[in-house]
Specification:
Distance between the termini: 56 Å
Number of strands: 0
Oligomer: single chain
Number of helices: 7
Radius of gyration: 22 Å
Number of domains: 1
Order of helices and strands: HHHHHHH
Largest sheet: none
Strand content: under 5%
Helix content: over 70%
Length: about 170
């Protein structure tokens, strides 16, 4: 059951990314769009990130629509809790558990302290994920396009015939 779900998830991510690779944008635009999508999706926006994608697509003509929305498939609601746990732990590692600002209300101190820790850790993890995703998607886009560009030039039977002809000489 879990394997089947992971297989479906992997196929969906692959399909979304392949569609982004084939879009009429430069590899840098595809990678930047995906990285922006990963950064926004990783942040605790409560679902408002997707509406921010529509703003980006509307105002920035260089944005790859497919790539920015493909980031949602990668950081879906099942993966985001892992990002939040890692963000909280990183924030605690960097800031400690003492709140930076204190109030007279204990619950408010806890809420503000936890929010600060989570936000600092989340920004750092989102930046790291965005940078990593830019590099990976840029290389994958170029490799995908190079592979398909080469295959468009010559068909496999023609390539085989060419190799055989060269070998006979």
């Amino acid at each position: 059951m879990l394997r089947e779900r992971l297989s479906i998830y992997r196929a969906r991510v692959r399909r979304e990314l392949t569609d982004a690779f084939e879009e009429e944008c430069s590899p840098r635009a595809v990678a930047a769009s995906f990285a922006i999508g990963i950064f926004v999706t990783a942040m605790p926006t409560g679902g408002l990130g997707i509406s921010l994608f529509f703003v980006f697509v509307y105002y920035w003509d260089w944005v790859s629509k497919t790539a920015i929305f493909a980031s949602v498939a990668v950081l879906n609601p099942f993966v985001k809790p892992l990002v939040y746990v890692a963000s909280y732990r990183l924030g605690v590692l960097l800031l400690g558990t003492e709140p930076v600002v204190t109030f007279d209300i204990t619950v408010l101190n806890w809420l503000v302290g936890a929010s600060q820790v989570l936000l600092i850790g989340n920004v750092l993890i989102a930046l790291a994920l965005a940078g990593l995703s830019y590099a990976v998607v840029f290389r994958l886009t170029r490799a995908h396009r190079d592979r398909h560009h080469r295959s468009d030039k010559i068909s496999p039977p023609a390539a085989l015939a060419s190799v055989i002809q060269q070998w006979r000489k």
